[in-house]
Every structure is written in structure tokens, then in C-alpha cells.
Write a structure and sequence with these properties.
Length: about 400
């Protein structure tokens, strides 16, 4: 490892395997959040796969406590939190305690910090007394040495000096904002109820108070033709978050978007288009040195149930598809740069990027074989950064 550079940032690679039928478009190019509130996996496996800023830092062990639609003053057009989280009743403080205990009992490989996280609702929009109850609960675990900190997701328009004062005596490390878009028309059509100015002000205030800041955005919302997503990504870069999450919009049953879709007033992104767009969007963040810690909704029994997702690019390995597309672009660029159009080629990548280089079900290898006349080889190289591809 002497002399090898250390990767600065990594993208989350969802290693879960998707169905082969959903990947046929990727094998043969040319053929035919996401829900404003963060959704994380409900398994320890996923928790330990979440990307951290530096590859030499242990990944955090995140304990997700879902508060479906709690504190939300608006019904966003894309949202059905029950479908996302699988919760069908209010979540009490004792429920939260039981969930924390359940996760703490799991065997784990991660040596990173243990973070209790409140997701699935608008945390600073719920009743003040309940906020305090949940924060005291989480802080108690920190005080016992069984957890290291707290994080939560909330709407940008709930961030102000008064709401942040509720956090003063608690070990809150990270605040995530459901930005979704930085385009005023997209926000209006999505019935978000907040403005881009709210997002800018919230991010700046959180920065001033030294919180770690995560920003969540969506692609394919009503009124978003692709350019709006790219512009949103660039404006998010200007806010200098510590990390971002990207969710392609899917049409959930019993959401307002389902009605628009049925009426022909909304057209969902295809899987191919969503992967291409998220590849471009994530590239903007990566070039700016901002980690993308999640792309696509995490798979769950509720989302996988028949009829839960009506349309849109829901795929259990969406993040892996995007990263595979990114590596294919890099490989093609290298071949063009070197003037190689045929013959045996060896691509070198970091050991953690071999799967992305090969593509879902070796899709990248098939595509490159069609260009070169022979299937290329992939060799591990620990001296490369995780986003790098080299020849030889």
C-alpha cells in the first residue's frame, strides 16, 4: 500500500441483486423519496454498506427510527410514507426504545459510531414535547455509552434559531434536509410547501451551528425534465453539504401522484432514463468532492408488495446500476483516449469497485466485448481510488 493514494470519497453501491428482466435494457442500450423523506434499509447489512466520507474511516452503524408522516404540514404529491416505511400506526417513544434495543442486539461488523436516527417524517415539525421525548430517549443511550450521537431528517422550512434551540442540550450530530428540488416550479407542482430560499437559509444556519449537513434531492418530479435536476445538483453543491442522497421518483399507490399518473398528467421516468440522469447528477457531486451516500429507495417488503409501486424506476440495486453506468463511461473514455478499438484489454480498478466495473450481471463486460471483439479482463489494484479506472 506504500505510495498508494487513499480514496477521498465513495459512492454507495447497493449490492443487492435485481431481477434479470429489469436489467435487459442495460444489457442492450437503446431498448426500451424519493419520497421527500429519507428511507433507509431495515437491515444491518444495509446499514454497514452506507458510504462514509473517507474509506479509511469506519462506517457508522445507523439505527433508523421511522416516524411516518409525523410533523408533515403538507401532503407532497409523491408521498405515501406508509408504503415506504411499512408503518401503519403512530410510533410511540416506547416503540422507538424497542427498535433501538432490537438493533443493538444485532451482531455487527462495523466499528464505526452508533447513530440513532429519526426518519420518515418532518422531525422539527412534530410537537415540541414529542421532540424532547425522542431526543431524551436517544441521549440516554449516548449517556450510557451504547450510542454515539443522534441524527434526523426534517423540512428546510422548520430550521430556524428557535427550533434549533431544542437541540442544544442533546448530542445531535447530523441534520438532513428534504430539499428534493431547487426549482421553484418543481417544488410548487410537487406541493412541497417550502421555497428554495428556505433551503438556502436552513443549510447556512446549520453550517453556522456546526452540524453535519446532509441534503436529499429527487429526480423525475412533476415539472422536472432533467435539466432541473442538474441545476438542483449544482445549487446543492453551492451549499457545500457533507453528503447527499438522490432518489428517483416512483409512483406509489395511494399517493396524489398516483392519481396524476392514472389521469395521464404525469409520466414516470423509465429505469434507463433514471440511471442516466442519476449518473449525471451524481457526477456533479463527485466532481465537487461531495459523497453520495444513497441512490434509490431501499428495498422493503412493503415496497415489493404487489401494487405498491405503480410506475417509475424502483429497483433494489438502483445505486449499483448508476455506478456501473459511471464505470462504463470511464472505460469507454479510456478506450477513446488511447485509440483502442479492438483486441484484449485489461481494466484496473480498486477492489471495492470490481462489481461496478463489471456491471449488473456482467452487463458492462458484454457491452465492451461488443466493441472490442473480445471480453476485457478486470484486475484489482489497491493503489487506485474507488472511482478510478486504468488500463494495463
Amino acid at each position: 500500500m506504500a505510495g498508494c493514494s487513499i480514496a477521498r470519497a465513495d459512492f454507495l453501491l447497493s449490492m443487492q441483486k435485481g431481477g434479470s428482466a429489469a436489467n435487459l435494457w442495460y444489457r442492450f442500450p437503446g431498448s426500451g423519496g424519493l419520497l421527500g423523506l429519507i428511507v433507509l434499509a431495515v437491515s444491518v447489512f444495509f446499514r454497514e454498506k452506507e458510504t462514509h466520507l473517507h474509506t479509511n474511516q469506519p462506517k457508522p452503524f445507523v439505527i433508523p427510527i421511522f416516524l411516518p408522516h409525523a410533523g408533515c404540514p403538507h401532503q407532497c404529491v409523491f408521498c405515501n410514507q406508509r408504503a415506504i416505511t411499512g408503518a401503519h400506526r403512530p410510533f410511540s417513544t416506547e416503540d422507538a426504545r424497542a427498535e433501538v434495543e432490537r438493533y443493538l442486539a444485532f451482531p455487527r461488523k462495523s466499528t464505526g459510531q452508533t447513530i440513532i436516527s429519526f426518519y420518515g417524517g418532518n422531525f422539527l415539525g412534530i410537537a415540541r414535547s414529542r421532540i424532547q421525548d425522542l431526543l431524551f430517549l436517544a441521549a440516554d443511550y449516548v449517556g450510557q455509552g451504547r450510542a454515539d450521537g443522534i441524527r434526523f431528517s426534517t423540512r428546510p422550512d422548520t430550521i430556524d434559531a428557535q427550533s434549533l434551540s431544542l437541540l442544544d442540550s442533546h448530542p445531535v450530530k447530523t441534520v438532513e434536509l428534504g430539499v428534493q428540488s431547487m426549482d421553484a416550479r418543481v417544488l410548487e407542482l410537487s406541493k412541497r410547501g417550502h421555497t428554495t430560499r428556505d433551503t438556502v437559509a436552513a443549510a447556512r444556519l446549520l453550517r453556522e451551528q456546526s452540524y453535519e449537513v446532509g441534503l436529499q434531492m429527487m429526480v423525475g418530479l412533476p415539472g422536472d425534465e432533467g435539466l432541473q435536476s442538474l441545476e438542483t445538483a449544482q445549487r446543492i453543491v453551492d451549499l457545500a453539504p457533507d453528503f447527499v442522497r438522490i432518489y428517483p421518483t416512483v409512483v406509489l399507490e395511494k399517493s396524489p401522484l398516483a392519481d396524476l399518473w392514472r389521469a395521464g398528467q404525469y409520466q414516470a421516468l423509465t429505469l434507463e432514463r433514471a440511471v442516466d440522469l442519476c449518473n449525471d447528477v451524481s457526477g456533479i457531486f463527485y466532481d465537487a468532492g461531495i459523497p453520495v451516500v444513497r441512490m434509490g429507495l431501499a428495498a422493503s417488503e412493503s415496497l415489493d408488495a404487489d401494487g405498491a409501486v405503480l410506475a417509475g424506476p424502483y429497483h433494489p440495486a438502483f445505486g449499483h446500476l448508476v455506478m456501473s453506468a459511471r464505470f462504463l463511461d470511464k472505460a469507454r473514455a479510456l478506450l477513446r483516449q488511447k485509440g483502442i478499438s479492438q483486441g484484449q484489454v485489461v481494466f484496473r480498478v480498486h477492489p471495492g469497485s470490481v462489481s461496478a466495473m463489471r456491471g449488473q450481471q456482467n452487463a458492462n463486460m458484454q457491452i465492451l466485448e461488443s466493441l472490442l471483439g473480445i471480453r476485457p479482463r478486470v484486475r484489482e489494484d489497491v493503489c487506485l481510488e474507488r472511482d478510478q479506472v486504468a488500463l494495463g
